[in-house]
Amino acid sequence: MSEHSSDYLQRLNRLKGAFVDSCGPRGQVIERAYAALQLSDAGSHAESLQCLRDEAHKLAGAAGSFGFQPLSDAARQVELDCSRLLASGLAPGVADKALIDRLLQRMGDARL
Fold this sequence. Notes:
Layout: H1 3-39, H2 46-65, H3 69-88, H4 94-111
């Protein structure tokens, strides 16, 4: 392995480590939005869904870039689900909440 390749891999591993470290704070943002969603009535859940969608979107891209495909896939599912709910005006159901639970689990797995 060349010195250039080794330096590149070291920098990439530092970035990957920084991403993993960011999963804790990102998870807290998602958990707060999820908690607010559970407490809101059908007419006031849009703000929480938008927050969840935006965080899931960012997470899906970053996780995929660093090779955390199961996390990226889970985040993308939450993003699409939140977009569907926002467009329809429907309140999240049990299946929607299960997607968020799965995302939070995948985030925990990435930190292990």
